[in-house]
Amino acid sequence: MRTGLLWDAPLTFQRYIEDCGARCDLVTPQLCATPFFRGSFDALIVPTGFANPAYSRTLVALRASAGRVRRYLEVGGALIVFGAAIDRPDAYDWLPFRLVYRHQYGPCQVEPVEPALFEAFFGGYDPGALECDGWFEEADAEVIATAAGRAVAVSRQVGDGIVIATTVHEYPSRSFLSALGPERREIAF
């Protein structure tokens, strides 16, 4: 499995993904927004803080690459995107569906709605004390988990691909990549 991590510089998260059994390539905002870049990935991951200019310039590149993201998903790509880490409701406007975000960091009592996906992503954590950096106020997607009745993890099929978005501010469980399905294949981004 080959995974792309969309971020400005190497992160510990990259090593964690490799420890989970996948090759992980850093895709910088410059590469992401460059039309000639042709990486192929089983999954793309956008870490927490992507919309906060204090941490990253990734949001600008994602917006410039919205069409590329849609095409990647339509032919079977997988995208996992974490919290924006800034109170910016339009932080996910580059996705091919409506997702409105509200930022508020803190521990949450997280309730699974879709137990299999929840376990694949957050198994091993205490759902009574998961850190979240907000919630999705509106989501044209299936809810995976809630906190205080608000969606904190959602999934959406886009063509043959899938988007999983979450505000849970923890590394996913080690089995999270296998939850995307054994039939995953590298798709050109």
Structure overview:
By secondary structure, the protein is α/β, with parallel strands linked by helices. Helix content is 20%, strand content 35%. It has helices at residues 12-19, 29-33, 58-64, 66-74, 115-122, and strands at 2-6, 23-27, 40-41, 43-46, 78-81, 99-108, 110-112, 130-139, 142-147, 150-158, 161-166, 187-188. The strands form 3 sheets. An 8-stranded mixed beta sheet has the order 2-1-4-5-11-10-9-7, sandwiched between helices. It has a two-stranded antiparallel sheet with strand order 3-12. Strands 6-8 form a two-stranded antiparallel sheet. Strand 10 and strand 11 form a beta hairpin.
Any descriptors?
189 residues; alpha/beta; 8-stranded mixed sheet; two-stranded antiparallel ribbon; 5 helices; 12 strands; 20% helix; globular
Summarize the model shown.
Helix content is 20%, strand content 35%. With 189 residues, the protein is of the alpha/beta class.
Counting copies of identical and different chains, the oligomeric state is single chain
How many beta strands in the DSSP annotation? Answer: 12
Mind describing the biggest β-sheet? 8 strands, mixed
Low-confidence stretches: none
What is the helix/strand order? Answer: EHEHEEHHEEEHEEEEE
Question: Approximately how much beta-strand content do the residues carry?
Answer: 25-35%
Over the alpha carbons, how many angstroms does the gyration radius reach? Answer: 15 Å
> By helix and strand content, what is the structural category?
alpha/beta
Shape: globular
The pLDDT mean sits at: 93
**Helix content range:** 10-25%
Number of distinct helices: 5
